[in-house]
Amino acid sequence: QVRVVGHADAVGARAANGRLARARAEAVAAVLAGLGLPVARIQVEARGADEPVATNETAAGRGANRRVDVEVLAPR
CA-CA distance, 70 to 74, in Å (whole number)? Predict the structure, then answer.
């Protein structure tokens, strides 16, 4: 089981960032499925700009915040 979480920088509207974060996560999930991971084992989430890893005041920081995290989950 994996969780694919999309993120965005803080530029733009909250709703738009949420949609962008979900689209990023879905794109990564599609690649994982294409590599053979069963779709039923992939959870897709979007956090928008709510969990930055860097400042949104610089281009480098915004670039770091535009990301997808893939978490391998423990079996249930």
Answer: 13
Q: Report the C-alpha gap between 65 and 30 in whole angstroms.
A: 21
d(CA 67, CA 76): 27
Residue with tokens 């803080």: 10
* pTM of this structure: 0.93
pLDDT, tens digit (0-9, with 9 covering 90-100), for 6-50:
999 999 999 999 999 999 999 999 999 999 999 999 999 999 999
Distance in angstroms (rounded) separating the CA atoms of residues 41 and 33: 9
Amino acid letter for position 35? L
Task: Work out the angle at residue 67's Cα, subtended by the Cα atoms of residues 29 and 33, and round it to the nearest 5 degrees.
Answer: 10
Structure tokens at 75: 């079996």
Within 10 A of 37 (CB to CB), how many other CB atoms are there? 14
